[in-house]
Amino acid sequence: MLEISNAKEKVLEIVQHDPLFVVIQHTPLEEQLYSDDYLAHIHEKEHYSISEVANWFEITDAMLRYYIKPFEQYIFDNTTINPITNIRLTLSAILRLRMILLLKDEYRVKGLKQLLGIDEDGQLLKHQITATTLASTDELTNKVDVLGNVLQQMIQTGLFDMQTSDKQGIFQISINQDFLAQNMQSLSSESNHQITEIQKETAELKDENENLQKQILELQEGSVKDIVKKIRERHIENEIVSTLRTEALQLFSAQNKAGFFAKFFRAVQIEMEKEQFVVGYISQHLEERLEKALSAYYEK
User: Can you give the pTM of this predicted structure?
Assistant: First the structure.
């Protein structure tokens, strides 16, 4: 199993060149990818069933199959999956599937296919991350480096203190009042102007800090919306199962009409046959009906 200390390193080794990871990188979703609880129990060389993976991600088996089907070649490295056999997933396949689930609400199936270069027939085209994506990633990295250098230079002046909030872990920058008082008398008119600019920058940093706090609250609200969506998806599946059961019972009754005495002497056997018929009917039609219902729900 993966140790907690090297889980992030192992995950990054597998997904660092993945086109979906480029989208997730430098967002809160990246840390979620590294910190999922199942990583503490998974073995790199083992294969896992649909039921095990669905339980880890807190969704139904049918829901997991719904998101595997359009992305089979991407998830399984262009390997064709035999629908008759049980699907088994490796760590790399599970990580690709996890990134799909993390991005599904924002991009939907159609948007994810475009990111991965999958055509209408479900074929994964050979492609590389576009120059635009790489350029934007490099640009973001450069901006982070520049901001880091600016912040370091500001701290080195001695005029600012940087502290971490105990509750939220947010960096806060404030003016070092002692340093300011010691050097105030020696400041010239030009220095006074610089102080004004520094105070302005401090106010801007404070505004940015407040915006970050608002974003954190929005992310927390987003997690509540995710729970509501999961409940809705479960409700849709239950409705389809109920409908299929009703259809199966009606079809069984129409195909197995019998007289009163036949029903009386064969009641137990008829009930067993009816339940077997219902289970088979639901298994045959559930995935197709669920796929249509979910597609209709997400395309609203």
Answer: 0.44
Contact 49, 86 (CB under 8 A): yes
On the 0-12 / 13-18 / 19+ scale of CB atoms within 10 A, 209 is: middle
CA dist., res. 53 & res. 191, Å (int): 62
Give me the residues paired with residue 172 across strands. 163
Task: Count CB-CB contacts under 10 A for residue 198.
Answer: 16
The per-residue pLDDT for range 63-73, each reduced to its tens digit, is: 999 999 999 99
Using DSSP's 3-state secondary structure scheme, residue 72 falls into: helix
Q: What separation in angstroms does the CA of 289 have from each of 13, 120, 239, 241, 296? A: 38, 20, 10, 9, 11
Helix or strand or coil: residue 124? strand
Side-chain-side CA neighbours of 277 within 13 Å: the count stands at 17
For residue 289, which amino acid is it?
A: R
pLDDT in tens, 91-147: 999 999 999 999 999 999 999 999 999 987 778 775 444 434 444 556 677 777 777
CA torsion sign for 62, 25, 229, 294 is negative
Calpha distance 250→133 (Å, rounded): 55
- The alpha-helical segments, DSSP class H, found in the chain are 4-15, 19-24, 28-35, 50-57, 61-68, 72-75, 91-116, 131-156, 177-183, 189-255, 260-265, 267-298
The DSSP code for 39 is G
**Tokens describing residue 11:** 């995950």
Question: What number of CA atoms fall less than 13 Å from residue 184's CA on the CB side?
Answer: 8
The one-letter code for the residue type at 23 is: V
